[in-house]
Amino acid sequence: MSGANMLRVEEAIARITSLIQPVEGFEQLALRSALGRVLAADITSPIDVPAYVNSAMDGYAVRADDLTESGETRLTVIGTALAGQPFAGEVGAGDAVRIMTGAKLPAGADTVIMQEKTRREGDSVLIEGGQKKGQNVRHAGEDMARGEVVLTRGTRIDPAEIGLLASLGIPEVQVFRRLRVAFFSTGDELRSLGEPLGDGELYDSNRYTLHGMLSRLGADPIDMGVVRDRPDAIRAAFEQAAATADVLITSGGVSVGEADYVKQTLDTLGQVDFWKVAMKPGKPLACGQLGRCLFFGLPGNPVSAMATFYQIVQPGLRRMAGETGNQPLRFTVPCAGNLKKRPGRADFQRGILEQGPNGLVVRSTGSQGSHVLSSMSRANCFIVLPAESGDVESGTPVEVMPFAGLV
Ligand code: AMP
Ligand code: MG
User: Fold this and answer.
1) Which of 13, 53, 78, 99 could lock onto 61 through a cystine, CB 3.0 to 4.6 A?
2) Could you give the CA distance from residue 9 to residue 378 in angstroms, rounded to a whole number?
3) pLDDT, tens only, 109-135
4) Backbone phi and psi for residue 42, each to the nearest 5 degrees, phi listed first
């Protein structure tokens, strides 16, 4: 099929996005349990962080006006301020207070001199010249100010967000409910784990990769097993999923020929299109709606199933889960070694980003067959070659998309 009749990857993503609204359904969760979930409401800071002016160093809290520009200054040490044990008095002219990192800056002081710039002589401290007013002081609200929106609805809660929310004293958050994502594999040749392999049979791996990627995305995966290539079995599985899940993902059975009867079954249940997406691995992809359930039919080859899930399904699921503004990281690095590529479809080759003698480079994992699942395991990124590109010579800059924890 010529490139002109195929759907470009961006177009496929845009069509899917237009079908999708974020789920309406929320949960109130204890902070730790919210890891990997998506915030359903903006978070406004109830306090200043830091809550009080404090020291960024171990040293001495002083008044900058007491310091001489160039020479040494002698001040009298009148007390100590520790983190959690503020100095109760005030720093007057000629005074200094010994202070530790994180301790509240005593009244009267405006500057902290790091210990290494000082010398102690009994009750006095001698301070080197060249200090700057206000140095080594952390201001209240410098990180986050009270009343400021610090996280917006649609933000995914990763460990940094968990810590940030904890620093605000927020014990619970409202998140979007998990997506219920059902999935099954089709194919008479597939066996499940624990079953012996007969002649011409293979183990079903797509259900395992899908389960893993869906879990990493924070969805609730519903494994429906292997469904035999029989119209009544497929139909029953589609009906069951459509009744219970937000999304159904199948793999296999969407290539030419096979698709015909899957298509017949789907036509009676909903609105599903069969696309030829201009990507490799991939190409055949079914997408549509079975009642209120969103449906994706992925190709059966294990690398194609992962690549189409990653590139095309993932953005849709993120949007449906309420997430906004997730932009996958893409950047350009020189390619170490030649890459084979036929013009026509965008290639998502499996690559290994690594440090070369002159900086970051990417090299191919080797065989790019859509059945070579070990290529996904060895890779840490996709090498994205645009549809019109041909072979790539070693040293040419190519675009990469790091797997970023999902694969
Ligand atoms: P299909 O898309 O059904 O024509 O399948 C294409 C290729 O992928 C065939 O070689 C299948 O045996 C293989 N395949 C299909 N589904 C799976 C699966 N769930 N796990 C591993 N391989 C599969
Ligand atoms: Mg099949």
Assistant:
1) 99
2) 24
3) 999 999 999 999 999 999 999 999 999
4) -60, 150
Can you give the pLDDT at residue 3? 53
pTM: 0.91
For residue 32, give the amino acid letter. Answer: R
Q: If you take atom 12 of ligand 1, which residue's CA is the nearest one?
A: 189
Q: What is the C-alpha to C-alpha distance for residues 227 and 253, in angstroms, rounded to an integer? A: 11
User: Which ligand is closest to the CA of 369, given by its number?
Assistant: 1
- Helix (H) or strand (E) holding 213, with range, is helix 206-216
d(CA 153, CA 350): 34
Bridge partners (DSSP) of residue 285 are 275
Place 264 in a pLDDT band, splitting at 50, 70 and 90: confident
Structure tokens at 242: 């459509």
Task: State in Å: Cα 187 to ligand 2 middle.
Answer: 4
What is the amino acid identity at position 267?
Answer: D
CA atoms within 13 A on the CB side of 55: 30
pLDDT at 1 over 60: no
Distances (CA, A) of 385 to 127, 280, 343, 351, 390: 61, 10, 9, 12, 9
- List the structure tokens of 227: 């469904």
Q: Which atom of ligand 1 is nearest to the CA of 371?
A: 8
Ligand 1: lining residues by beta carbon, under 6 Å: 185, 187, 189-190, 202, 204-206, 251-253, 255, 258, 299-302
Which residues keep their CB under 5 angstroms from ion ligand 2? 187, 252-253, 300
